[in-house]
Task: structure prediction
Amino acid sequence: MIFQNPLHEVAIIGAGPAGTTLALALLQAGLKPVIIDKAAFPRPKVCAGGLTIKALQFLPRDIGTILADEISRVNLSFNLNRGFTKSYPQPLLHTVDRRRFDAFLAERVQAAGGEFRQGERLESLTKTPGGAWRLETSRGSLRARVIVGADGARSAVARGAGLQPVDFWHLGLQAEVPRKLIRTAVFDRTIWLDMGSMPDGYAWGFPRGDLLLIGVGGPLSRGRELKGYQARVLSHLGLDNRSLPLAAHLIPHRVTPRPVCRDQVLLVGDAAGLADFWTGEGIFFALMSAALAARQIVGFFQGEADALAGYQSLIDREITPELTSAYQFSKIFNYLGPLAFRCLERYDYPWEVFCRVMRGDRSFLEVKSRFRPDILLHKLLVRSARNRPIA
Ligand SMILES: Cc1cc2nc3c(=O)[nH]c(=O)nc-3n(C[C@H](O)[C@H](O)[C@H](O)COP(=O)(O)OP(=O)(O)OC[C@H]3O[C@@H](n4cnc5c(N)ncnc54)[C@H](O)[C@@H]3O)c2cc1C
Result:
């Protein structure tokens, strides 16, 4: 007699925010997913930990207990030169420690009765003649009817299923710096962003409790330039870059409707290339894609034959156009360079629109569809006339 591994309904590979929030949604719907991660939790994750207000809608209500700084201001500089600060009357984002944040969600999965297998790496997957998938892991093998790749930027599930969802790769380099080493108040409720130093690249400083996360991101093909940029950023902040350990990670971007599912395999979050090209934001899209995947997987187990294939249309309708719009705005912003920067400094209107997008009151897609350069110019001129002191 041939011994068969038990057949799981759903196997989720990766317990980052995409994988765990998907597992929670499936558990709530009465399914019993197994979730597998190669790391033992809590585990580190290279990330600035910026959690926008719009991302909170997908998270457990008591997420507030692990949020660090509340951010409502952005300090902007151009090519590491002079800067200015813009404020918004409401919070734009919170910072989180990804080690804590991801462990918090993984604990929720376990508390809800989910099977969480830590320290187990997916090595390969093959379709069995019966239609299920067989997974080989560092600890053995298992079978599942539906596989979800929530395994991040270098997804083994995407590779195993022959899916290539990513258009561009960015590389992020980041150092964690004790806050006391930087003698400036610029980081109070404030993040710092530098633009214009390299094409499609930018630098950030995010406060998180006693730490500052100082990083640079840009095209993977410019890796060397990025290292030089990070060194310049650290010395700009008065830090010795040789003494600070740097961590690096890929950021995957999709701006075209590439495949994210086939044959009962779905990709979510970074595995599907869902990080914003302009802002680098990936957590919101990881959570949103997990919510969309959950809806389709539940439909599949309720007998809707086309539910899993429908995930592709949902991603192409609800997420890809937003990522494409952000990419296009980023290209315009880069092209205009110092002019765009001066506009942002001088006028509040583009800043306010950007804040609304961060909070989820608007999307880049809506902004693009309403974009009328003539009306924008008119608004800017009227506001500039109002701001001008009367002689
Ligand atoms: C430097 C940097 C800064 C960033 N800053 C921000 C920010 O401020 N705000 C924001 O919204 N986004 C940010 N991002 C993007 C964000 O980190 C990701 O978009 C987000 O983590 C994606 O979540 P995920 O669940 O899809 O994948 P991940 O969080 O990457 O989780 C994937 C999980 O899969 C596991 N895994 C991988 N391979 C296997 C395998 N073979 N077998 C088993 N398990 C596996 C990993 O251990 C990991 O736990 C940043 C990214 C970088 C690189």
About this structure: The pocket of flavin-adenine dinucleotide is lined by residues 13-19, 36-39, 45-50, 121-122, 150-152, 156, 172, 174, 215, 249, 251, 269-271, 275, 280-284, 286 (CB under 6 Å).
